[in-house]
Design brief:
single chain; five-stranded mixed sheet; 5 strands; 64% helix; 3% strand; elongated
Length: 745
Amino acid sequence: MEYVTGSLYRNFFRQYPPHVFLVYFMLSFSCLNIIAVFMTAKAIWTSDEGSLFLAGCYAFLPGQFIRTIIGIYIKEVFALPFIFISFGCLMHCFKKDTYATSVIGALSLVTALIAWDVTQLYLTILACGLVVTFLITRGENFPIKNLFMTTFILLMAAVSLPELRVKYFAVSPPILLLIGMIVILLTVKYRERNTYGFYPLAIRIFLFLSIAALFTSGLDHSYSHAYQLVLYKIMYGGVLPADADLLPFEAKIMWTGPFLSPQPVHYLINFLSVLIPGTVAVLLLIKKIADKSAGKEEILITCLSLTFCILFTLILRMSVFTAFFSVLPIGVYHAIARRTLKHVIAGGISLLLLIHNLVLPGFHITPSIPDGKYLDQLINYLRDETPPDAVFLTSYELGPSVAGYADRAVLIHSKFESKKLRDKVKEIYTALFSNEEDLHEIGARYGAGYVIYQNDMVLADYPGNIAYQVDRFPIRTHSPAFLMHFFPEELEHFNLVYRNHNYSVFQMDKNAETNTVRALYSPFNDIGFFYKNDEPMGNLDRDRIDRGVGEIFNPNVLLLKCGDLIRATRYQDALDLCEYIARTFGVTKDVDYHFAEIFIGLDDQMRLKETLYTMMNSDERRMVVHLPIHDEKIFLWLGAGALAHHDTGLALALYEKAVKVFSNSEELNFRLGLTCMKCNRLSEAGACFSKVLMLNPNNYTVLNNLGSIHGFQNDHGRARYYFKESLRINPEQPDIQKIVAELNR
């Protein structure tokens, strides 16, 4: 997937952020699953109307789209359409066995095998389902062309493709089972030469192949991690044990994220609408199988439906497979003779789907990955600011994104069917949580020039985090991960060269040519959220992580922290935090107020005016009075803005505060005087204008205002005096001349 999407992005869509491109690509590509459902249903149930209904059921079933819409874009999403298309081709070959359809299905399977290692698990399950179907039907009318062509193409791929050759795919369980069915079919075809009956022959061959499969599957330990995961899940009832020593590394590294066991709520979120109709449909199919009236396609989908439903009870990641094979059996209702009853059932299922989707938002489903823009920022930095031949040490989940979108080499990735890769992951993760010298030695040995640290290495809030996987939990304060997270300046061998709110990049081997960047302030990297002032800095345990992360996701706590940073004159750190708060929780009046304080401290006039403009055009405009403004022009600008909003009270408060700071400002005293006149506070206005006259005796406008004030107070003598003084300075004032003439009468 990363190769295809990365190449498309780098060559055609670089003008878009990587996560935006990936969202649209994956959502569009996932729609192929709906077409595959229609194609498969048409092959099984031979009805356009019924197939369209099943495709609609699948399209609106949360179990198939929920993981995509919450942002899980992984190889599975890319491989599933090819898997389902290949299954549809197989169903068509049950009806009409042709080489062309078989080739399309086989090539789709090969594509899926290359893209996603779990495809081999699906293929093994499919092969077992075919064996069961084969035995129940005694191999009668089995699609020999499809079996032969699929097996041949898979064997050619196993020999020619390195991804499959190194895993001994040519002698894997599914290939051996497919070969076994072909051998039995060819033997039965010439049954007059066969001394055995069908079942004795089939049992002997499959027993031999099963033993061979058990042996060959352990040749390179390609799937030992998957087998161990299932084994230990069964042993511990799907609950991850608190003691990491109870599990081997290969089970622990898989027992996380989508490989966790579902909770009861997950059944409701994913399959609420098909629980009853799907269960009844499978029971009807089992009854048909018992009555020997079921077709080969019905037997196979029954086997696969039951298998994937059982697997879903152990592994959340099986949700899309379970959705696909839960919808297909519903087509059995199409065989009901009474048309009215069929329509009632279809209407009932549609109503259940509608209710399911309406109540879905009530489950408060949250994205499972960090903000995509932080990954975009990281990718852009790697692509634009690091050498093209740079090699990066990353987590195995992040590696494919770095390789695919930044076009940089990585040490580890998520193709976990390689035992050597899993061993390398264990080695690197152990060093990451042990000591700096070990991590540096490993990075140097593998030729890494950079290390990418991500916050969830230390702050993961899911079971089975990395430290748990390598039995280093609670996290030691001297470990490289802890220092990279909280104290990058204390590292001896790694130099921080980039940081955003989720990722940090460290260059190996500090030297004179390496420039240390200012570490962006992020609450996730603030030790104060995890250790209080009076607490000793012991190992970072779950309680401290939960407490710290809980505070970080409390906007009120973050706003208080922002205020503390401002009072400590750490304005750049406060700006980093304020921008994070605004991005994560939205812009509020308190956020704007802190922004204004920060820009005042940084003397950033442009951004300060932008913030004040926002505040003045909202209900929070009165908060500007409390800002520590030390710029006369800003006061004048704010006062004018308040008057433009007809808020004379705010203008008065601003000008009163301003003249305390700039007592000898002619303009501010003048504006305060005018505002006092608007508020009918004539004595105060007169005092302001008198102050202006002390600063500029020739300000005839102020003399006119003083004359008006005394006129309002019926002190005509003083009024006449100020107007005459104004005319002495500027005789060209016809309106004032008229006023003086009136006063002289």
